[in-house]
Amino acid sequence: MPAFDTALAVLDWLGLVVFAVTGALVASRKEMDIVGFVLLGTATGIGGGTLRDLVLDVPVFWTVEPAYLTTCVAVSCLVFFTAHIPQSRWVLLLWFDAAGLALFAVAGAEKALAAGTGPAVAIFLGVATATFGGILRDVIGAEPSIALRREIYVTAALLAAAAYVSLEAAGAPREVAIGTGLAAGFALRGAALRYGWSLPRYRPRPGRTPDEIGR
Hints:
By secondary structure, the chain is mainly alpha-helical.
């Protein structure tokens, strides 16, 4: 379905741009130079897909289509001169980021299945595609990692990838599987943004500490 594939391509580029912007904005908060902007923006934009392709042992996507790399560089440089604009629209960026997160999770899982992996590996690589760039961004920018925050982020990517893979395994049409995965991941991330949802935290039971037990 050409229209469906066109819509996915548009969302793919939009997600790439938004991810690059969020990375560059971390550089703005750290008051980095333009090289730091490019490093963080590019790592966020293409980091997840790079890890996925390396694990799958296939050509890394941005070496085949360098436009992905040059877009991240260009967006990061643009943010260096205009960081106040996206920063003032941070809430809107978060919603676009939620859409990109779901799309990258589904796209990563789809590519993994096409490469012959099993469902569990495909789901894992879908999550990695959607989140690893953000993890790199936070490590390089010395920010609290998205993998360790209470907010629902990785879980939304997991839901998107799992929904897609499950429907694909059940023989659902590609459009249905992809659409359901996108909707599930976006809905969960969106609800978390709107209502402040988070997963329950571990709370130690009252009693003797491990040091006390060892005495």
